[in-house]
Design goal:
single chain, 11 helices, 9 strands
Length: 268
Amino acid sequence: MAIRFAGKPGLVAYLTVGDPDLKTTREIALAAIDAGADVLELGVPFSDPLADGPVIQRAAERALSTDNGRKATNLGDVLALAADLRRERPEAGLIIFSYYNPIVRYGLERFCAAAEAAGVDGVLVTDMIVEEAAEYLPVLERHNLAPVFLAAPTSPDERLKKIAEVSKGFIYAISRVGITGTQTTMTNDAADLVTRLRRWSKLPVAVGFGVSNAEHFAAVGEFADAAVIGSAIVQIIENSEPAEAPSSIARFIKGLRTGANTPVLQAR
């Protein structure tokens, strides 16, 4: 059950659902797919996103805000958006990106059944580690959902082998140790990690954490199947008026594909 990428490198685009609001997220998602994103990671906003840097932390706060009478975005909203996107763009890859707490509160079986019904391809739970996934994996399997795991440069070979054995869809290779966020340069750690993973898996490998501009995107394409871009996209959304955000994201993604001189956006 590998995710298909139309070109090399493929593009996995992360969005925090509900930032700045659900209607705008939908329009941004459609614009991202139409501009060339192969896969969307639909981020479930969480109140304690420890693996994320300040850009995505702020996006989660905005999505969970109840200011001015707005409703906080929840997992049910993310699943409803996934179903809508599946109807509108049947060929797009859709991944639910979440911490485990919202899924536990929703109910793992209930969540997986709803995700399958919505047409979701897979699930990436940032704090679900392969060593503790014995109960998690069979439920995803029953509902035809691909488990996507994070693989870090510091992981020993034994752990990478286990991740490769149980992963489906693609493997998410972390380019560096630390939290999410943009950076000015890419390290050699990512290329070495991709080489190690390919000893045990033929699945596509997507590299994320710090991929921020066209130069990074092209560099990742030299050794990996896809690049994951999150903080740079989320920061564009933060800096745009809601009505302008979809077109801003479309221009950014097209710039990645054409090698345009897209700026490096610094995490604050």
